[in-house]
Amino acid sequence: MIVRKNMGRASPLVLVTLVLGFCFATYNLVTMIMHNRAISKWIEDDANGGIFFDPVIKMPENVRKPKNARLPFHVAVTATDATYSQWQCRIMYYWYKKKKDLPGSDMGGFTRILHSGSPDNFVDEIPTIVVDPLPEGLDRGYIVLNRPWAFVQWLGKATIEEDYILMAEPDHIFINPLPNLASGGFPAAFPFFYIKPADYEKVLRKFFPEEMGPVTNIDPIGNSPVIIKKDLLKKIAPTWMNVSLKMKDDPETDEAFGWVLEMYAYAVGSALHGVQHILRKDFMLQPPWDFEIGKKFIIHYTYGCDYNMKGELMYGEIGEWRFDKRSFLRGPPPRNLSLPPPGVPESVVTLVKMVNEATANIPNWEA
Q1: Pairwise CA distance, residues 195 & 60, whole Å
Q2: How many angstroms separate the CA atoms of 75 and 98, rounded?
Q3: Among 314, 293, 296, 292, which residue's Cα sits nearest to residue 304?
Q4: Per-residue model confidence as pLDDT tens digits over 109-147
Q5: CA 212/CA 85 separation, integer angstroms
Q6: Which among 215, 218, 266 is positioned nearest to 240, based on CA atoms?
Q7: In whole angstroms, what is the distance from residue 174 CA to residue 166 CA?
Q8: What pLDDT score does 70 carry?
Q9: Which of 45, 79, 189, 302 has the least C-beta neighbours within 10 A?
Q10: Average pLDDT, the chain
Q11: H, E, C per residue of the chain
Q12: Residue 366: per-residue pLDDT
């Protein structure tokens, strides 16, 4: 009775103030808990080599795709008819088929864009379209310069059912089902630590004029891996090709960029069209520098993996145990490669096991 009496005498203004104060305190408490949980989750994922969501550039809210939406993409890889390229493509295609229809995958069709000008022995094994190489001498020994020209031809002559395209390379192995990481006018790309537009402003201004904005508008990427809307790539590809040729023709630029020249050309070409990429560090891992597989999607085995028998990295030397794709320039790697010694990172062990599985199951591997 006393309590009710006191409450009844309380001023309405006091009651409103108390209620608002309680709500505000509750809101702050809940927000703090959720914030701490998010930070803890990010730290935990980062410690495990994972990524919280979009690790470099957050995808704009208005272009996030619905959770259950499937946006298939076509896998396209440019290649030559050299043995070195052929065996890599056979392994890549094997793992594409293994992962394509698994839950979480948005992978659609597959095309090897063979820029040799004529078919090779594997057109019946791997879905292939033949396009012309650049005119003789135009690439100046830099064979990668054929890649943008190959895409221009393919996009002009092929019927591609999917609205999106993944530009890939022969030394890519799918380790997890790959979803469509792009969304609308925002392609998805892997950021390379050695693509640094800000360090080459003087050179890049020859191809990216000041009226286009700062050179930091150029993304730190190459053309692969990139998932991009088909219609957008059709616009970028001719620019990418022309910028590549102009860069190669400029001695200062050629010397500055070397073997990554074509990567810079794609980054510049897309920036000239005002295209910004969603940068995904979880798109790919590169042994031996990345240790764990985690939730990443592609192994890129471009670097040699050299170790002593204690499992210690011997980069720059010939290891007691090694796997380097360049050891197999003239013929495919043999079946049943020896596994790395104890202590070698999971990424390298997984790579060798996946190569072994592919070579054990691809018919006529030694061919």
Answers
A1: 24
A2: 14
A3: 314
A4: 999 999 999 999 999 999 999 999 999 999 888 999 999
A5: 37
A6: 266
A7: 12
A8: 79
A9: 302
A10: 86
A11: CHHHHHHHHCCHHHHHHHHHHHHHHHHHHHHHHHHHHHHHHHHHHHHCCCCCCCCCCCCCHHHCCCCCCCCCEEEEEEECCCHHHHHHHHHHHHHHHHHCCCCCCCEEEEEEEECCCCCCCCCCCCCEEECCCCCCCCCCCCHHHHHHHHHHHHHHHCCCCCCEEEEECCCEEECCCCCCCCECCECEECCCCCCCHHHHHHHHCCCCCHHHCCHHHCCCCCCCCEEEEHHHHHHHHHHHHHHHHHHHHCHHHHHHHHHHHHHHHHHHHHHHCCCCCEECHHHEECCCCCCCCCCCCEEECCCCEEECCCCCECCCCCCCEEECHHHHCCCCCCCCCCCCCCCCCHHHHHHHHHHHHHHHHCCCCCC
A12: 85
Name the band, by pLDDT with cuts 50, 70 and 90, for residue 5.
very low
Query: Which residue is it, tokens 């693509």?
Result: 195
